Amino acid sequence: MIIDKNTKNNQLKIINNQLLRIAFLFWLLILGGCVERQLTTPTTQMDAEPQFWVRVLLLDDVKSCRLKFDSPFCIINSRTQNISAHFDKPNAVTKAEIFNAKITIANYAITDNKTVILPEAPYIFNLNGNDYRGKLQFIINPDGHSFDVINLVPIEPYLAGVVGAEMYSYWEPEALKAQAIAARTYCLYIKKRFGSRRCWDIRKTQANQAYRGVKAESPNIWNAVNKTYGQVLVCRQTDGTEDIFPAYYSSSCGGHTENSKYVFGDSFEPLVGVPCPYCKNVAKPGFFFWPMAKFDKADVTNSLLRRYPKLKQLGKIKGIVPVRQSDYKGFSRLTLVKLVGSTGKSDSIRAEDLRLTIDPTGRKLKSTICKILNMGNQWAFLSGRGYGHGVGMCQCGAEGMARQGKKAGQILAYYYPHSKIVRIY
Prior knowledge:
The chain has 9 helices and 26 strands. By secondary structure, it is an alpha+beta fold. It has 3 domains: about 65-145, no CATH class; about 160-285 and about 390-425, no CATH class; about 290-385, no CATH class. A hairpin with a 6-residue loop joins strand 3 (about 75) and strand 4 (about 85). The N and C termini lie far apart (about 75 Å).
């Protein structure tokens, strides 16, 4: 077939245009992938029974905070459960502040001591720049000069904000599922044990377990939460019954998990400690073996006396002497130390309490697997390994086991021996 010059040129133009469209679409896909996307997952369990809601302490003893709602919201009187006020204008940033025992929100004065704010669907609010699901509660403190901020949230959406804060979302799905079950168990245990004594159940910090709300969520995290819906760990109690227990976990155990009774003072069969050959190749450099940490002696004394007033009888801390340690192959974890004071008196505290008193962040003095050295005006902690208290599941170890093909149930059975998984809802 003979093709004239004009026809050939037209065909080339068509091909070039098609190539340009393909290239344009390709770059749109690339650029679109670089834009951070907000999850549109709806907030589930909003009709759950009260025992399956969690009260998370977000802010403690504050005088003001910034609020933003992407949907209309209402203020509910905690005593009557009636709507006190309704706001139709979303997306406006407002400030909540207290004066003369009254909290003002969007020019509306609240005197109710336990005010609840309920945003409409998708039930998300923004507090100081961070998005959270569920409801918001303000509790005015007795002095009338400050208030606490509580997130009332169903357990499953809460866990989506925990698992993504406690583990990397790209870790193995089975490790994420193990984390979801452990975190759910721990949360419900703390709620059951301490919640009745206070206006909140659990802190958002690593003092309990990290909770970052919506920004910690991802499809992988929600998949782990949904695949383990309602699942918790139980073990045999001293009275012969089966119930949940504090399913502690930490970042990297350093090679062997620790018996809970030496760290937290409680005793449960699944928390006796097990060897862990799995975390060493997963933990980041500087987290499995960590560098020497030094602290000024005067600062150490001041921190200890401030947290433990009974130690004032010691005067200045002149000596820190290991009293008890758990010996494992090639290393030891300090569990009890004696503090020797300038007055000649001494007292003992748990090594984990010493660690978190000296370094509340736990980022320099990463564990109690270390040696203590007296260096003039400083205390030095060296030959350190592991990150965290070391009780229960080793998170890096869980990821190591998952990479070897272990399922979530196998991971949990290893780190919490004599426990089993049950579904409670």
